[in-house]
Here is the input.
Amino acid sequence: MARWLEWDARLSARLRVAERPGLLRRLAIFLGHSGDSWFWLAGLLLTIWRGSQAWRTLAYTLILGILLTAGIVMLIKFSVRRQRPEGEWGQIYRRADPHSFPSGHAARAVMLAVVALALAPSWLGVLLIIWAPLVGLARISTGLHFISDVLAGWMLGSLMGLLVLQIANSGWLP
Here is the structure.
């Protein structure tokens, strides 16, 4: 296991752009932040307030998915307690949550994409399927996660998306 973790850390460090000024760094920061839960929750609450019934139903479903995914991610993070990669960038994330495994941003992005593919207009599902892996890669590039954190997040997000779809199909949501 130690050998795997060492390889994971070395490869993750090679993908890092957090300390290098330029377009790639700015893009990684933007994509990483685009997966923040507060951003999604604010947009979804706005959708509930101003959207049509179909969009409100989708928003309720996605909010449920975000909350469930966050709960499972935190449970795993505080069980595993893997420290984030060393670095200066992203202090807000490092202070709020010092644990890296699994990546909550990667899990949330994939969960959103899975649910959107099934329930949203096709253009939104396709957009989120393209966006989701970029969020995970951005989290590695900004030095906040190791590759294995993101891979685990993607797998967890897929499972959470399927769970949310099961709940949505059961009629529990408004």
User: Anything to note?
Assistant: Residues 23-169 form one domain. The mean pLDDT is 90. The two ends are 46 Å apart (CA to CA). Residues 37 and 79 are 21 Å apart (CA to CA).
